[in-house]
Amino acid sequence: MRQQLHPTILAIESSCDETSASVIQSGKVLNNVIASQAVHHKYGGVVPELASRAHQQNILQVVNEAMQSAGIKNEDLNAIAFTRGPGLMGSLVVGVSFAKGMALALGVPLIEVNHMEAHVLAHFIDEPRPQFPFLCLTVSGGHTQIVLVNDYLDMRVIGETQDDAVGEAFDKAAKMMGLPYPGGPLIDQYAKLGNPKAFKFSQTVMPDLSFSFSGIKTAFLYFLRDRKKEDENFVEKNLNDICASLQLHLVQMLLQKVKLASHQTGIKEIAIAGGVAANSGLREAMKLTAQEMNWKIFIPEFQYCTDNAAMIAMAAYYKFLAGRFCGLEVAPIANLGIGDKA
Question: Domains of the chain (ranges plus CATH)?
Answer without folding.
Answer: 8-121+305-321 (3.30.420.40), 130-300 (3.30.420.40)
